[in-house]
Amino acid sequence: MKVLIIGTGYVGLNTGVMLAYLGNDVTCIDLNQDKIKGLQERKVPFYEPHLDELFSKIHQKMLFVCNYAEADIPNQDVIFIAVGTPSLPDGNADLTYVRQAAESIAENLGEKFVVVVNKSTVPIGSGNWVEAIIREHYFEVHNEKPNGLFNVVSSPEFLAQGAALFGSFYPDRIVVGSEHELSVARLKDLFGPIMRQDFEAPAFLPRPDGLKEVPMVVCDLTSAEMIKYAANSFLALKISFINEIAHLAQKVGADVSSIARGIGLDKRIGDRFLNAGIGWGGSCFGKDTAALVATARDYNLDMPIIRAARDVNYGQRTWVVDRLQEELKILKGKHIALLGFSFKPNTDDLRDAPSLDISRLLVQRGAVVRAHDPVALNNARSQYPNLGISYSEDLNFILDEVDAIVLISEWPIYRDLAWEAITPVTIIDGRNFLDKERLSQLGFNVIGVGR
Ligand code: UDX
Q1: What is the per-residue pLDDT across 23-66, written as a single tens digit (0 to 9) for each?
Q2: How far is the CA of 280 from the centre of ligand 1 (A)?
Q3: In angstroms, what is the span from residue 228 Cα to ligand 1's centroid?
Q4: Is the minimum distance from the CB of 235 to ligand 1 under 6 angstroms?
Q5: Which of ligand 1's atoms lies nearest the C-alpha of 272?
Q6: Whether 6 contacts 80, CB under 8 Å
């Protein structure tokens, strides 16, 4: 099939590479010329495991353009909108890029019917809004109605950074929000190999044992949009729940890891997303929970559970600094090393990263902060040059004569450090990840979350 992807961020590029690997004829468009130039030269604009490898294999089969005249819209079978929807200060999503994409589609529609798939996380009801924009704009440009030329479908994305390709090839489900038979049939065709799992798995991304098929949930458009928000809010809630339990565990002398295992084995609860720690960050959980609360407010509805999940989460960041202060008594002038700067391992993404708030709080209280990350420091230097902390790839420098260490994200290299060679200090293990027994034997004062 001929597929156009609008937006070459995490969602767009991973989806495009996956669909090209499955044999589709994929064009990606992005208005950022530098990004497109880089992609034409085979440069992936962000770090994502295996994406480089797969991209270099199928690069020649993909086309990268930065203007709609070259995107061949009249001949596309499916167009994915996968542009960014950043948060506005009031929590609502900024839809400027979605509007631009919809208008550009309208200007370039041809005679052939095309399915427009909204993959960007947009506010509930946006599918209808995109449809209305295309319709109106088409009328303005062509002075006639675009009847039968397109249909807008919602197919939210659930991929997680650091495992994005895995999530593209082996998703738990595909959601398609549409009551339009032809659109659903076309997407069933496009995603057929994923649903049947009959494609040849890339060598470095073997198919999980026992995965025989992936279900497609077909529902109305608004429900599909809401599935995305409900899924992310539930996962965010699960993490905040275990973090709240962790605080009580700490008070009564229990171990939250055992509690998580004990409750997680109950199949009704499930064992994933129960790792206590400094909480969630990233591009989705914060933004989507804020957007859900904001949408509810538009309907005079309060969502106290989701608000509480947010409060607990952002409170974890202050907790780390308070706990450190409790141990060191005085933070002013103390050297603190942060291990891991991105919001989780295997990504260089700093959106809503707990490290940022923790750095700001430490600097406010007078600490001298040095941060390390295996892949995110270039982004840190360019996006956050004025945090008042120093960045270094050199772990010897980072850990030299420090007063305390905070583990922010669970990169395996931190567990495998030559801890024997480091002077024992207080460590806040923000992910309950380090080998506490070994480190304690070496004289470190290891403080986990809820242990
Ligand atoms: C998330 C969703 O998982 C994905 O389905 C959606 O499409 C986008 O948002 P992502 O933000 O990439 O994906 O990462 P995820 O692995 O979900 O982790 C989010 C945050 O939660 C990270 O900061 C992680 O460290 C934290 N987390 C996760 C916990 O604190 N505890 C856990 O048990 C799991």
Answers
A1: 999 999 999 999 999 999 999 999 899 999 999 999 999 999 99
A2: 6
A3: 14
A4: yes
A5: 33
A6: yes
Q: Is the CB of 47 under 6 A from ligand 1?
A: no
Tokens describing residue 50: 């295996």
Closest CA to 371 of 383, 361, 358, 230: 358
Which residues contact residue 448 at a Cβ distance below 8 angstroms, ignoring those fewer than 6 apart? 429, 432, 436
CA atoms lying within 13 Å on the CB side of residue 141:
15
C-alpha 131/C-alpha 157 separation (Å) is 19
The second-level CATH assignment, the architecture, of 2-218 is: 3-Layer(aba) Sandwich (3.40)
CATH 3.40.50.720, applies to 220-451: yes
**Whole-angstrom distance, CA of residue 199 vs CA of residue 194:** 7
Residue by residue, DSSP assigns 186-248 as HHHHHTHHHHHT-SPPPTTSPPPTT-----EEEE-HHHHHHHHHHHHHHHHHHHHHHHHHHHH
Catalytic site includes residue 219: no
Q: pLDDT by residue (tens digit) across 176-225? A: 999 999 999 999 999 999 999 999 999 999 999 999 999 999 999 999 99
279 CB less than 6 Å from ligand 1?
Answer: yes
Whether residue 23 contacts residue 100, with contact meaning beta carbons closer than 8 Å, is answered with no
Lowest mean pLDDT among 125-129, 169-173, 222-226: 125-129
Summarize the confidence of residues 357-373 as an average pLDDT: 98
Burial class (CB in 10 A: 0-12, 13-18, 19+), 350: buried
- Domain locations in the chain as residue ranges: 2-218, 220-451
CA 26 → CA 18, 190, 288, 381, distances in Å?
10, 12, 29, 34
pLDDT of residue 92: 74
Contact 422, 429 (CB under 8 A): no
> Are the beta carbons of 56 and 21 closer than 8 angstroms?
no
Burial of 353 (0-12, 13-18, 19+ CB in 10 A): buried
Same fold yes or no, 2-218 and 220-451: yes
Residue nearest atom 5 of ligand 1, based on CA coordinates: 158
Three-state DSSP at 411 gives: coil
Asked if pLDDT for residue 127 goes beyond 90, the answer is no
The pair of three-digit structure tokens given for residue 331, joined into one six-digit string: 């933070």
